[in-house]
Amino acid sequence: MNTPTLSDAAQPLQLPAIASIHDAALSGRVQQLIDHKTKPLGSLGRLEALAHRVACILGSEAPRLDQPQMLVFAADHGLTAQGISAFPADVTWQMVENFLAGGAAVSVLSRQHGIALNVVDCGVARDFAPREAAAGQPKLWRRKVAYGTRDSSQGPAMSAHECAVAIRNGMALVRALPGNAVLLGEMGIGNTSCASLLLSRLCGLDIAQVTGAGTGLSADGVARKVQVLRQVLQRHAEVTEPLDALAALGGLEVATMVGAVLQAAAERRVVVVDGFISSAAVLVASRLQPAVLERCVYAHRSGEPGHTLMLGALQAQPLLDWQMRLGEGSGAALAWPLLESACAMLREMASFASAGVSEKS
Q1: DSSP 3-state assignment of 49?
Q2: From CA 275, how far away is CA 300, in angstroms rounded?
Q3: Which of 75, 259, 275, 281 is 20 to 30 A from 168, comparing alpha carbons?
């Protein structure tokens, strides 16, 4: 297939070509190893399927997860001027400071599980003081394209150039990071609206089906949000291609995440997808390079109503279903020990033959 491009005045955006990693021989060997562990066939349930998936992503019968990187992409959204969020836009920059200070949910869970926390300023409407992160402390990456997107109810959220720069930033960031796993997170007041818009446009779903309370809107607030988002879709009715939809509907953190997903997939890293907004980035990336989906593990099903439909579109089965809707990457961090356990089981659990245990007759 041809590699898609998004043109801008400077140079075309060249996206990595991502081939399928399906390997029937490897898949068969991994499944045979799992089936001959000292247990009844299939008795570890979905842990076995998870072990098989991670092994196939990493191309190893003895997979080991190395230096996991949590990426929290942060940006503001001009659409918040239309009253589509229960919280003020200032919460975006305030939460970035909270991430860096170690007080947010994703900070706590990343620290607990030994995941390196990277906070990426993709387009927050405020500048942050430079800081050097000590070993084991969160790191701030300044990859600001603009001070938030424009109001998509009035015109495109981003220009094609801004969208291309954000995608390139995400690709370059992953190239700069060690390890073989990335966990996706985000922060941006108004970004559930962005995810709903992208899902509606790219999957042909009615916006009312895929729009929820976000940070806690009342029923009246949700009704107003749906009305605003319907107007946005009508304004951009001619926009149907994935990159064009991304530029028109936003946002900068989603575009940067799309680049990160594409690069991680190209490098055959495990991509741990958090919730609704992270899944929207994967949806866009998969419309550009379908084999991206072979590298993804979905942490949880969000409490946002659109996420179930998003997961269906991605043919994804989440690991957890705890009605979480915080974002940040909190669900991805919470699910991380399951991936580690799956790999440890495959590497270390004895077979019937090695343990001298009789198999089922």
Answers
A1: helix
A2: 6
A3: 275
